[in-house]
Every structure is written in C-alpha cells, then in structure tokens.
Design a protein that fits this description.
Shape of chain A: globular
Largest sheet of chain A: 8 strands, mixed
Strand order of the largest sheet of chain A: 5-4-3-6-1-7-11-10
CATH topology of chain A: Dihydrofolate Reductase, subunit A
CATH class of chain A: Alpha Beta
Order of helices and strands of chain A: EEHHEHEHEHEHEEEEE
CATH architecture of chain A: 3-Layer(aba) Sandwich
Largest interface: A-B, 37 and 37 residues
Structural class of chain A: alpha/beta
Radius of gyration of chain A: 16 Å
Oligomer: homodimer
Chain lengths: 182, 182
Amino acid sequence: MRPHTTVYCAVSVDGFIAREDGSVDWLEAAGDASEEDYGYRAFVDSVDFLVMGRGTFETVRGFGAWPYTVPVVVLSQTLSPADLAEAHATDARLSTRSPRSLLDELGAEGARRVYVDGGRLVQSFLAEGLIDELILTTIPILLGSGIHLFGSRGREHGLEHQETRAYPSGFVQSRYTVRRSS
Amino acid sequence: MRPHTTVYCAVSVDGFIAREDGSVDWLEAAGDASEEDYGYRAFVDSVDFLVMGRGTFETVRGFGAWPYTVPVVVLSQTLSPADLAEAHATDARLSTRSPRSLLDELGAEGARRVYVDGGRLVQSFLAEGLIDELILTTIPILLGSGIHLFGSRGREHGLEHQETRAYPSGFVQSRYTVRRSS
C-alpha cells in the first residue's frame, strides 16, 4: 500500500519557503525563544521517512551537522553518495526514482507515513496527485521574493480544512487534507 | 494626514487571488450558503474609499452591476470615463496619480481609512511602504496557477499577527499589521 504523505512546511505570508539563495535566516529570526516547536517533533516522530529533493539537501548540508533522526531519502538525479557523506548524512539514501515509484518502494518496505519536504519536490508530488495532507505554518513576514512553496504551474486541488492554531509568536499553523479527485 | 490602508483579500492556499484570466469562480464555489460574510460588510463600512487598479476593475466590470456602495477610485493610466460609465460605476472616479500622491489627496479630503484591492495595486503600494494592515482570507484550495497577490519582486516587510479565525466553511482569516521600517 502506498504510504500517506504529508507536507510540513513553514512559509512566509507571501508564500516563500526560503530566500532566492535558499537561506532561512528570516525563519530563525522569527522564532521565539520559547520551547515551542509547533508540533514538529511529534510530527517527525509519526513518520517513517522524510523525502527531500536536491534543493533542500543543499540547504541542510550548509547546517554543518545532519539534523535528522528519521530515515531520509534524497531524491536527485545528480547527487552522489559522496555528497551525502560530506553532509554527514546518517540513515539516508539517494534515489533517482519517480515520486510514485519511490512511494511504492517505501510502501513495500512497510512505510506508512512519509514526510515530503521542499518546494520543487512538493510541486512534483502534487502534480502526480501524491500528497495527502498539508501542515503549513505561516510566519508573520512578507519576504518579497524567494522560493515559492507551490509555484505557478500546478494543478488544481480541492482541500479540506482540518484545523488552525495561532501561536503567541504570531505563527499560524493550518492543517489541510487534499481531496481526492474522482 | 495620510489615511490608514488595509488590504482585504481572499487568497487560495497557494497565494492566488484569481485565475490567470482573472476569474474568481473557485471563490464563489468555495463559499457556503450561510449568511457568513467573513467580516466583509463591517470592513467595507469602516473605510472611506476603496482603491483598485485596472485588473480588478476589469473583473468587476464583468459582474454586470456595480457592486460597491463605498466611494471608489480606479487607479489607471489607460482607462477612460467611458469605461467607468460602461461598468455602471457610481460614486467612482479615475485617477492617474501615484499611490503616495493619491493617498495624500484622499487624506486632504478627510479620508481616514482606505481599502486597497487587487494584486498589482497591492504590490505597488507595498513597494512604497504604503500598506498598514492585511486581512487575508485563505480559501481551502490549491489553484495551481493564476494571479499572485504578492508577486516575486517585492520588498521585505515584517508583520505583526493580530488575530486568526477559522470558519466552519474552512475559510481561515488572519489579520496582520505591517511593521514600520525604521
């Protein structure tokens, strides 16, 4: 069975997930000093795999240490195992599969829930109707320019709003499920 | 004194205010049959003027009847009074002023609150730091493509989250104030 897929992402009010150079300094600056993690740890603990594309991998590589405890798949046609080693990636593998084929593979391995991260990757999964759920945390800033989460060349998808929570920091998190088209 | 400016707008989860041809059928389809107006009437009653650009005017013109009771300014270099007459525009005038100059003019006329509507116009007001408040109603749909509210060539603006309300229809309305840059 194909695993359930969730996009969990922070976006600016104007819909960007990073500046044009991939940096997320604005996101760190906007966070408060509290212990609040906006459900991130509980969410990550609920998934069997995190799937990211090259763009997100390049950002994470810049962090210096590999931040994930969950198994990761980096979907890329161009990266090599040496890139993963250089990023100190542990419990991570490369794949050149299509989104659908990757999910089928992960499902065959017993994965039930998959976290899909990154702009271009999310767009390609959406284009094939392979996203089940969106958890979007809106950060109170207009970036003006950057990398869009959704882009402008996608398909239409009806969503079902599940819940919204506003935090004292001004972050607003909404959860939507994607309606299956008939 | 320059009047206080508010953007009041419905956007898809992927940040579009209309399809590429300007149509908002998806917005009408998403609305429920209840009497809920998401605070629109109270908001419109609180402003002295609504300012729109040519794009929004062209959409409104297609409605067949002029839907506004509030005084309207259509900011355009190309429209003519004949266009306004054809749209059955009442209590509406054309202006070719810059955003700043228009606000100064309206302020001199005693206007205290102005509603700024439409994608390109909002972008040009934002570019000059002339927006004070955003009231954004997020509709549970991914349109995939269309006209962005904010575009990709703007300036950065810090926002202050004021309140968020989720409605039974799945619409989520957030109000932000724009931080004044020093």
